[in-house]
Task: structure prediction
Amino acid sequence: MASHLDQVHILDVRTKIETDEESARVAGAQLIPISELRERLDEVPTDKPVMTICRSGKRSVLAYSILKENGRDEIANIQGGLLRWQQEGLPLN
Result:
């Protein structure tokens, strides 16, 4: 069964400390801590829409804004972050 997740790119902007403490990750998500995002924008794919996520949804809003400021249009923020993702029973690594 094909997943809709292969039609979007998930960008996880949690810190290394958070991802070390909480191993749960959205399957296939790219990890770039929010503090490094501006310097690493060229690592974020441009061939499909990007959805930003963090633990609770606050920093991913900032990541959304950074992408928007840099000319990205096909972007969305995952409201509620990883906490909501888990509550919804969506796939994790």
